[in-house]
Amino acid sequence: MEVLGWSAGDAGIELTGHAAIDPLSEDLAPVVADLRVGAPDVLVYLGLGAASHAVATAMADAGWDIPVLANSALMFGYVRPDWRDAWASWEYIDTIADDNEQRRRLAEVDAAAAAGPIGTATYDMGRLVGHAVARAERLDRAGLREGLERVKQLPAASGYAGTLMGFGVCDRGALKGPFLVLRAWRDGKTVQVDR
Q1: Per-residue pLDDT tens over the stretch 78-91
Q2: Are 72 and 12 found together in one domain?
C-alpha cells in the first residue's frame, strides 16, 4: 500500500481509502460501505477475480454507482458469463485488442482461440517457442535458451497493434510495447475502450 500511496501522490491523486480483502470473499457490503465514506471519484480494484464480483454486487446493492477501474481480475468474465453484467460500469485491463492484425489472422484460423486472452497468449507463446526451436543450434536447455534469445520483434496477437515478442540475454519479458488493453463488459460482451 505504501508504494501505491507514493505513486498516487506523485501523480497528484488523493487516496481516500483502501481495503485488503480475502480473494474468495462473498459478502463485501461492510468494506464497500467503509470505502464509500471517503467519497472517492473512482474506485480502483486491484484484487483477484472472484472477489471483484463480490465488490460489484455490494456496490449495486448499496446503490453506489461510480466509475471503477480494475486490473485483469475482470478477465474472469471469459469463464463466468453470469458475472459480466455486474461489471457493466467497470473498465479493466486485458491483453486483447480489436485492432490487432495478428489476432484477426488467428481468428480466421481459430475463432475460439482469438476470442480471449488465454487462447491468444497460448498462440503467441507457441509461435515464440516455435521460432526459438527453429533458431536453436541444438535442442537442449542451453540451445533452446539461446534460440529464444535470437527471437526479436515477432508480431504478437496479444495487445494493441504493434505489440512485439522476443527475448534478450538480460530481457525475460516476452511482450514489448502496448500489450495492456483497456476493455469493459457491455451487454455480456467484452468491448475495447478507446484510449
Answers
A1: 999 999 999 998 99
A2: yes
